[in-house]
Design goal:
It holds the Pfam family CASP_C. This is CASP C-terminal domain-containing protein. Residues 1-20, 55-80, 103-136 are annotated as: Disordered. Residues 1-10 have a biased composition (Pro residues). This protein has helices at 9-15, 21-24, 26-29, 49-103, 127-135. The protein is mostly helical and 136 residues long. The chain has a domain at 48-103.
C-alpha cells in the first residue's frame, strides 16, 4: 500500500509552531531575568521546591482538620439521632403496653352483653382507672 507523501518539515512546523514566550508570560515580555536566574541568585517570582512542598503540606493539614471537624459533627448528629430513636422506641413500647392493657377491659363481642366488661373493669368502678394511672 502506498502512503500519502508527507509535507516538508518546514511547512509543518510553521503551521503548528507555538506562540512566542513573550505572549504567554508577561514577565518575559517585560525583559526581566526571571526565566534565566544567575547561578546562586534566587528569583522572588519562582518559589523553591521546599516552599512548594511546605505549602502543599500546610494545605493538606488544613483540609485534614476541616474533614476531622466535619466527621465529628456527623458523629455527634448520628449519636443524637440514635438517642432520639431509642427514646421513640421506648415511648412506642409504653404506648403499646397501655393500649393492650386498656383493650383487656373492653367488652368482648357476643359475650355477656354490651354493658359488661371482662376482668371486672366496669364492675370495679374507678379502681381500674386508678390502677392504670399508677402503672404509668
Amino acid at each position: 500500500p502506498a502512503r500519502a507523501p508527507r509535507p516538508p518539515p518546514a511547512a509543518a512546523t510553521a503551521a503548528s509552531e507555538p506562540p512566542p514566550l513573550e505572549t504567554l508570560l508577561p514577565i518575559a515580555a517585560a525583559g526581566s531575568d526571571v526565566l534565566a536566574p544567575v547561578a546562586g541568585q534566587r528569583s522572588q517570582a519562582m518559589p523553591s521546591m521546599l516552599e512548594i512542598v511546605t505549602g502543599q503540606r500546610d494545605r493538606l493539614r488544613e483540609r485534614t482538620g476541616d474533614l476531622e471537624q466535619e466527621r465529628d459533627r456527623w458523629r455527634s448528629a448520628a449519636e443524637q439521632e440514635r438517642q432520639r430513636a431509642e427514646a421513640l422506641h421506648a415511648d412506642n413500647v409504653k404506648l403499646l403496653e397501655r393500649a393492650r392493657y386498656l383493650q383487656s377491659f373492653q367488652p368482648k363481642q357476643g359475650g355477656g352483653g354490651p354493658g359488661r366488661a371482662t376482668r371486672g373493669g366496669r364492675a370495679a368502678g374507678g379502681r381500674a382507672d386508678r390502677d392504670l394511672e399508677s402503672r404509668y
